[in-house]
Amino acid sequence: MKYYFFDLDGTLADTDGDIRASWKSALADLGVSCPTFDKDFVAGPPLEEMAKKLLPDVYTDELGAKIRERFGYHYDNDGFPNTFEYPGILDAVKALKSSGERVFIATNKRYAGASAMATKFGWDKVFEKLYAGDMYDSVPTIGRMNKTQLLAFAMREIGANQSECIMVGDTINDFTAAKANGIFSIGVKWGYGSEDDLLKADKTISSAKELLLIS
Length: 215
Fold this sequence. Notes:
Layout: E1 3-6, E2 13-14, H1 16-30, H2 37-40, H3 47-54, H4 61-77, E3 84-85, H5 89-98, E4 102-107, H6 111-121, E5 129-132, H7 147-158, E6 165-169, H8 172-180, E7 184-188, H9 195-198, E8 203-205
């Protein structure tokens, strides 16, 4: 048996349109200007990490928290009109599950938004559990987790060994987290990751059906 952890943004779905729109609305709410937004923004990394990259001269933890709050307000209420599931990905996940593998979502996305999206696309009926970095934000002994910590937490919770786990993602954040936890990583070429990002993956694939050829 293998345990597959799937990233969400850029792996399961093209979420870029709605994420960008909500980011722009959040910055507008706060009166923050970012002339390089369209060029430099990438969906996938943690919100605060991207805010530091976009706003290096003005970023503070307080500003990051405000952006997170306003982004969440817009994102959770827009209904994801510009988000599209990648062709064939859910069929591949279902096939893995039917063959006896266990499948999970592991994302940097906010838990509220990820859960709402999972319900809209029916992922909640396929994946065993959704793991998000802020899902235990209010639990002092756990708190907010980056992708490396999130994978470690999930592996402990389900009782999986390193050799049994596979991380499927599209950016360097996914592959470095997998490596830090000693697990195999698969990079999907249809996501947001650059060619340099994908070099960090143990294997890359061009179509979802290739997942079924990996043993």
